[in-house]
Amino acid sequence: MKTNLSCSVAQDLLPQYAEGLLLPESEAELKAHLAQCPACRKICVEMTSPEPELLETVTEVDYLKKIRTSRLRLLICGLAAVVLVAAGALLFLQHQQKQAAAKLTEQEQKTSELLAQIAQNAVSYDADTRTMVIYGNNTQAETILPPALDEAVYLDAQFDSFHLSAYLPHLRGEDVTLETFLPQYLDRTENSFRFIRDYLKENCTDQYPARQAAKYVDLTIHQDEGYRWTETEDRLALEIGSYYWHREEVYILSLLGSERVQWKQLGYAWYLGSCVDPYSEVLLRTRFDLMQDYPYAEYYTRGGGTAENTPENNRKLVDAVSCVCLTKGMYWGSAYESVPLRMTALYQAAAAEKDPGDEMSVCMATSFVAWLSDRYGFDRVSSFCFDQATFEEAFDTDYASAYKDWSDWILRTYAGQ
């Protein structure tokens, strides 16, 4: 929930909030402000914490009790009436002590509940903008989403490592229930970004993009079909359309930090993002039963592909698609499958620059990069894709020779040629 409360107004309301005197509407708005304002939250916690005066009162009561007990011992023989009065006073003090202890327990419980509420992921819904707002310090495995999620059109979710703005109709479908899908999607997003950073750091130390990888990620799923990424001093902004499952690839392209996007960047991003990353959203979209209607189904099965949605099987899938391109020619499938990537929306090469690899489809480029990684090592592939070495410098051979070796391996493995 968005709040217009200023800090001064919020702090004026805190005494009434601590006593439980606020109207429900005012209390809800104050809680929303506390979730967003560390300064007011600290004041609230201090205000609702047990007061030292109460502890001092208990100490003073104990001291007075000792004094009166001593006096009773001295006067007990001749002052029976005083004994009765003192006994009555003792009972009164015990009652007061119990009340003070009960108040301390109540204050402690109230403080604990407030701290738990602040620490827990907060979920709210803005009916005016039809926006679901999630704010927390981790992903949403334990978040219970409210029924208003079915009415929401936009999502604004902010966590420690990334921020997601989403046009929710893109996440809905006939077989998608947002109540279960959305927390899982948020969890996979965090795990995927972390996996990619850790994999790069471990497997290509010299090329690891530490500056980019340390940046906070703003991920936007918008209404158009474009893919964009921009970089600021402390953030990476990623934008994808209805094909939201290409989250990992766009993130990797932003880490590459290149103004141009040609076959090596796309192949590298698709290889790492869907053939290596176990949290890839692409894997959930790849269904073995749907493959039966495509020309690569036979090659996929012949290459050892199974019905499981795993990175290893996705690697076999891009190999099988490449085999169809090599045996039956291009232009039989989608832009990713069999259209030269220089003709896709993602291609961003300089107009005067030509590279024979740009005649491959995205799947072919992915398969070729995977083969290069298997044969020469991921660190050398990274050196080439991060523009730190030419093809010859990275692989001790020229592009044409390597391409022939790869295509021969594809045809031998998947077509039996």
Q: What's the short version?
A:
By secondary structure, the chain is an alpha/beta fold. The protein has 17 helices and seven strands.
Could you explain how this protein is built, in words?
The protein is α/β, with parallel strands linked by helices and 417 residues long. Helix content is 55%, strand content 9%. It has 17 helices and 7 strands. It starts with 6 loop residues before the first helix and ends with a helix.
Fold blueprint:
Blueprint: H1 7-18, H2 24-36, H3 38-48, H4 52-75, H5 80-119, E1 122-126, E2 131-135, E3 154-158, E4 162-167, H6 178-203, H7 210-213, E5 216-221, E6 228-231, E7 235-240, H8 247-256, H9 263-274, H10 281-285, H11 288-291, H12 297-302, H13 311-328, H14 362-376, H15 378-385, H16 391-395, H17 399-414
Name some characteristics of this structure.
single chain; 417 residues; alpha/beta; 17 helices
